[in-house]
Amino acid sequence: MQHLGKLNPLTSISIPNIGKIEPKGLNVVIGPNSAGKTQFLKDIHYRMLGKPRDLVVCEEISLTRKGTLPEIIAALEEAEHIRVVPGSNSNHNISCRVFEFGGSSDRWQADSNLAQLYYTRMGTSTNGRKGGKDEFLSMFGRSFIASLFLGGRLNSLNEVPSFDYEKTTPEKEIQALYLNEDAQHALTAETERTFGRSIWVDPTRGGVLCLRVGDGPALPPDADRTQPSRMTKFRTIENEGDGFKSYVAICISLLLGQRPVILIDEPELCLHPPQAHSLGKFIGRYGTSDAGTTFVATHSSHVLRGIIEETEYLDVIRLSRAGTNFSGQRIESELLRASIRKPSTKSEAILDGLFAEAVTVVEGEGDRLVYGTVWEKVSAEFKHDVHFVSVGGMGGAADPCELYARLRIPICVIVDLDIIRSPDIFKSIVSALAPGPVAEDLTKDCRKLVEEVKALGPVYDEAAVRSGLTSILSAKLDWTDETQLNQTRRTLGDLSAGLSQTSRLKKGLEEFHSYGVYSNLTAFLSKCRGAGVFLVPVGELEDWAEMLTSGGPSKKKKAEWANHIANAIRDSDPREDDIWEFIRQMARRQRNEIERLAGY
């Protein structure tokens, strides 16, 4: 394949918003559903096979002649992709010996004069996005590309005819695997590690080669694998599940490396997350050949994580779409590697956000559950999807926000109103989302508001505190009365919280309605929404939708309360106010950002 790699006609690909890239090594294409990942691969597939197709995602695919026609024919004949029979007047007969991986299994025949004509015309049938049939690539393109869409993967493992390996070369991948001992060992090691099952090529059926699958990790003894009666006890791979078959097909193509360009569409299909992660690691090990290029389109954070963990040599492209407009963003692989090393961004939920059209970061799992449920109720009003990510406290929000913002993923942060009393944390969040001057301006406003709120004093004045303490001290305390002790703890806790100079923020915006700071707070919340930071105007999560919370668990038991309110929201119709309108405001902002970013 080294020689074929030098003759590979795929020279460059132009992607909206990215421009021209030169395909080499391992390229991973990610993005939301319907963002164009599969269509991107099909653009390459059809153009390299010379089939008529107007490009859908790519702006241009450059395919150029590498070498003279005699050089190409000599290389393909040496690889036994074609057979050349000398004819009269140097007009030789050429016949195809290889199938079109992922497409037609038809074979073609032509004479060298016709091949020369097609060679001189190569590339003239395409112009930018418009593309007609290229006769030269329709003949010879199949020698340079393997397209591993799901159907092609599954079909590639069907039993094949046996062959005389001393006189002919393999035409099918199972035939090639039969002659490649290293690839067989690597394949068996991979299926044993991932599935706990062995796999091997069975030649005992006379005119047929097939793949057999063991019931456990150990291969049958060598003597057994030469005995037909013993081999029939094991199932052929055709009788296995699609996930196992798809996994094996990808592994075989990467191990054999017979064609310079490999396209792998959604390798995670039919696989459990741990298996998808293992396949990602395998692709990271074997998909980085300098002699060719591998494109992987995936919607799986597990596959992506596996690839990133295994190799440093990759390009990651994130596709997005607004209407009929596609847009690409090239991602620094070091940025992704750093993100899976940081505790604040290493979780699968964070990586899942890379595959969403928009992301909303919230503080905890209770917030994610409730706000996510509200989104489910109002999402029909919008055309984009939203992935909610909990970060275990706003102190950990800045890193994922920076990750998503650098990838041009529309992002919002929902945070309790009392974030205002933590200007440094607020600054770290807004700095990840907004341009520097905007972030500085909002941070100054935040610091100013903290002082204005503090100037109002605590919620409880001296008389209220004395009254609360007196009610506790005047009662006869029974240290065995758990109910009384719990009530005493609650009273003391409320008094303690109420003595904080910023405790009013917990009660929401309306707590300040009669104070001059109210207008400043209202304006600040509006400016924050413009930057993607949505402060909860009622104070905190537990103060939303009070019409649905009666009879439910205490707000102090947040997990139980969140489950209760989420069920109540799910069972009720969406309203035009309260938490429903709050989430609509968030979604409108994300929708506008999607449209803005798609304008490239």
TrEMBL record:
<dbReference type="InterPro" id="IPR027417">
    <property type="entry name" value="P-loop_NTPase"/>
</dbReference>
<protein>
    <submittedName>
        <fullName>Uncharacterized protein</fullName>
    </submittedName>
</protein>
<dbReference type="InterPro" id="IPR003959">
    <property type="entry name" value="ATPase_AAA_core"/>
</dbReference>
<dbReference type="Pfam" id="PF13304">
    <property type="entry name" value="AAA_21"/>
</dbReference>
<dbReference type="GO" id="GO:0016887">
    <property type="term" value="F:ATP hydrolysis activity"/>
</dbReference>
<dbReference type="InterPro" id="IPR034139">
    <property type="entry name" value="TOPRIM_OLD"/>
</dbReference>
<feature type="domain" description="ATPase AAA-type core">
    <location>
        <begin position="231"/>
        <end position="304"/>
    </location>
</feature>
<dbReference type="Pfam" id="PF20469">
    <property type="entry name" value="OLD-like_TOPRIM"/>
</dbReference>
<feature type="domain" description="OLD protein-like TOPRIM">
    <location>
        <begin position="354"/>
        <end position="418"/>
    </location>
</feature>
<dbReference type="GO" id="GO:0005524">
    <property type="term" value="F:ATP binding"/>
</dbReference>
<dbReference type="InterPro" id="IPR051396">
    <property type="entry name" value="Bact_Antivir_Def_Nuclease"/>
</dbReference>
